[in-house]
Design a protein that fits this description.
By secondary structure, this protein is α/β, with parallel strands linked by helices. The protein has one domain (8-268): Rossmann fold, CATH 3.40.50.1820. The protein is 42% helix and 16% strand. The chain contains twelve helices and seven strands. The longest helix has 14 residues, at 172-185. 43% of the residues are buried. Pfam families: Abhydrolase_1. Belongs to the AB hydrolase superfamily. Keywords: Hydrolase.
Length: 269
């Protein structure tokens, strides 16, 4: 007997919460899963239809064979899967909220199939993490190489050290939440995913995005300097606006969720 192949939406744990007239797709970033949105979901589900799912690299995915680094060595395959997922769920003209790497993935998908998107929210996003002579990404190449080396050789120690850097150290519960997500993802996946993320360069792609964008940046984010928000605002081809949330860390959905909900409601209306 042949076992029927699961749909992509089933494999990626996709679910819809709420039933408002506007649909918001919440898309998590590096090392986490859809539970990273738990604080804001009940506050948005009162007025909007929310779609959440887990990327193949996520520790929340049951079928570990879904993640193959040979396939996911750039953001393009993720963008293709996002489009497939949205087609399966019959989604069109949505507000896409992408955190970190997912923001760039959403931009790529919007170039490939713009009719799916009404607006894009780039949450703590960066098109390139490595500095150049005329661009501040926040890291030297040697910094990233050391980061990859540490993930490869001392993953548990790296998780313990990185948690309070990426997430506001004054919010112990959120730091713990983030660290548990990283541990569930596992070191083997983290190494390959980190290479894909931190060596990426999507500056040329940003200049092709025509869907209206709102860029939301943390005022104190070790991974994404304030200058990145201005870079995106200046280089996105379509209409864009830039908002800063006064906070520490890379995850406003965990540590500044009330302010983030306020901003999102102002964007979606």
């Amino acid at each position: 007997m042949v076992t029927p192949k699961k749909s992509l939406s089933t494999s990626l744990n996709a679910r819809t919460i709420g039933s408002g007239p506007e649909t918001i797709v919440l898309c998590h970033g590096f090392g986490t899963d859809q539970s990273t949105w738990n604080k804001i979901v009940p506050l948005l589900a009162e007025n909007y239809s929310l779609v959440l799912f887990d990327w193949p690299f996520s520790g929340a995915i049951t079928d570990k064979s879904l993640y193959n680094h040979a396939k996911y060595n750039s953001y393009e395959p993720y963008a293709d899967e996002l489009i497939t997922l949205m087609d399966e769920l019959d989604l069109k003209c949505i507000t896409f909220v992408g955190h970190s790497m997912a923001a760039m993935i959403g931009c790529i998908a919007s170039i490939k199939k713009p009719e799916l998107f009404k607006r894009i929210v780039l949450l703590c996003a960066s098109p390139r993490y490595i500095n150049t002579d005329d661009y501040e990404g926040g890291f030297e190449r040697s910094d990233i190489e050391n980061l990859i080396s540490t993930i490869e050789s001392q993953y548990e120690s790296w998780v313990s050290a990185y948690g309070p850097i990426a997430v506001d150290p004054n919010d112990a519960d959120s730091v713990d939440k983030f660290q548990k997500c990283l541990k569930r993802m596992g070191g083997e996946v983290a190494i390959t995913l980190a290479k894909t993320v931190f060596f990426s360069d999507y500056r040329d792609m940003v200049e092709k995005v025509v869907i209206p964008c709102t860029i939301i940046q943390s005022s104190n984010d070790v991974a994404v300097p304030i200058s990145i928000g201005h870079y995106l605002d200046e280089n996105i081809k379509g209409v864009s606006t830039l908002e800063f949330i006064d906070m520490t860390g890379h995850c406003p959905q965990l540590t500044a969720h009330l302010r983030l909900v306020e901003v999102l409601k102002g964007i979606v209306g």
